Amino acid sequence: MKNKAIYLAFFAIIFLLAFDYRLFVLIGVLLYWRIRFNDHSYIYLLLILLLISIPRTSDTIPSTDIAKIIKVKENYKILLIDNRKYLTYDLDNVNYDDIIRFNGVYDQLESDISNNGFDYRNWALSKDINKIVNINDYEIIKPGDSLRAKLFKKAKKIDDPIARNFILKLLFQYDDIEESSTSIFAFMGSTQTFFSSSIYFIESLLVLFLYSNVVNIIIVLLILLVAYQFNLSFIIYQLLLSRIFSKIEDKYDRLGYLVITLLVINPYYIYDLRFQLIVLIRFVALFRRHLHFYDGSLVVLFVQLVNFFRADLFSIFIYRLLRKYYLIVFWITCFCLLIGNVSLIRYICDRSNEIAVEIPKLIFTGKPSIFIISIFMFFLTYNNKNNELKRILIVFALILINQYQTLFYPYGEVTFLNIGQGDSCLIRFAFNNKVNIIDTGSTYNQTKLQRYLDALGVKKIEAIMISHHDSDHDGNLDWLIDNYQVDAVYDEKMEYIKLGKFQLTGLLSKNHYDDINDNSQIWTFSINGIDYLFLGDISAEVETDLIKDYPNLQADVLKIAHHGSNTSTSDYLLRSLKPALAIISAGKDNVYHHPHQDVIQRLIDYRIHYLKTFDHGDISIYFTRFINLLHTSNNEFVIMNKVIE
Description:
By secondary structure, this protein is of the alpha/beta class. Among the domains are: about 5-55, no CATH class; about 60-145, CATH 2.40.50; about 405-640, 4-Layer Sandwich (Metallo-beta-lactamase, Chain A), CATH 3.60.15. The protein is built from 23 helices and 23 strands. The strands form 4 sheets. Strands 8, 9, 10, 11, 12, 13, 21, 22 and 23 form a 9-stranded mixed beta sheet that branches. A hairpin with a 4-residue loop joins strand 1 and strand 2. The radius of gyration is 28 Å and the shape is globular.
């Protein structure tokens, strides 16, 4: 198998990422393998692909009601039940390694359906989390008495809020920085990452005084000690496997066996940022004769753009320069917490915050395409000492192209965002980096809106139109104004809004109603032969006024009023408009039970096609001069003309 392990690893990753096209990938890989090696080693390939295809989740519900708390985050906790990990959002006032008895219901892991949403399910599976537990009540039957439990308890009792928050973030990553892409704490990694860095540091010291075999034994024992304290995880596996495979002479096979073994343990590790960073940095090192300090930073930048569509260049480079400083800070903070020296912790906190404040921000955004990813990877591994400056310039040119990618898009879009329980629609034209937004959704779903804007590399918003001031329609308005260049905001009734070649007409703009929902601004506009109508949250009574005042009103695409509430979408409206397509923007399992079944039945009775954002995700109508294409996050698509049959 010499020189074949790296091929096995590469094909395993491609196979895992192929999703619905795995059969075609399998056939192509087998044909390549036969031509490339012309032997029977394809059996190993089939075995590896079979092993990584075995489902890692189980529908079996644990028979016990006893759980151990193995991770405590501000918004969620991870439990160990029958040696399997489960996620819950329902526990308060608990500590690491507490043993609890609970009463709850198990639920499946699901991701939001969105083109650019956070893949919650794969994130959880990469952490070996099996299901969600909705806990009704619980009792602590045995408080945790481990070292980390004692440290966490001491940290929570610190009176100084600044020092307390610093410790909780540094030692326990207590808030949601795991999903953050630009916070300086995000680059520090988990507690286990600090321990792994410490182990490498200890090893470099021990080799000065002891034989290598003795050092290996000591290091393995240290790793096992960390595993005992923190349970088996990716970092532990990676440390042990790296030590085992270090005896393999061929550097390509060394990396190949590491990747294959990790994926056999858990194929969802490909969605773990630590896996991506470790594998990519080592992969780049295979081809680079001289690995510069900034090569690792470029890998971090690349991984963050792929996963979060956002990265802060300066924070990445500064942290890589200061990581030894933060490692020292980590251990000093641990020691100070043990002895109860809060004043020294506060001093360290203030100095660290000063460093963080002094770091300027240079944010890059944009979701890299397959084309950009391929070129980026080529130049990350490009090895020509005489053209090093040229390589770096090309890499940064790619980052800029990625950030301003919409300037190169030959199509525009009208996208109804899966923003949860609320409304938000993005309108963008071809070869234009500015966007227009109708309603912004609620603050609770700000991240969903941000991820979509970041994926497009949006920096400028030409106009924000607010139908009315309900939190599920204008909740993110202030945040957008603070974080983007917003040219104009229209939050009052207007007859017309002219935005270049794009014009919105406000209907019933002179009518005023007592109810805030009925007073919603009603927008209509036409793009590429398709007529759109946005009804805000108006009721059936206002719908009647609308049709009476505008008897010739047309709507090919109707944004249903009030998220499908039964107070709207009357027979009179549907019979008069006869839209070809109705869009219902609502959150899954929302407390209002939107959309109402009566509304759905009326749409069915009038043979109106309808799409729900929580079922179909982001609903986009892409347009060029010659065609309109409807596409959803479920990869449903249809060509649209002026009249949709």
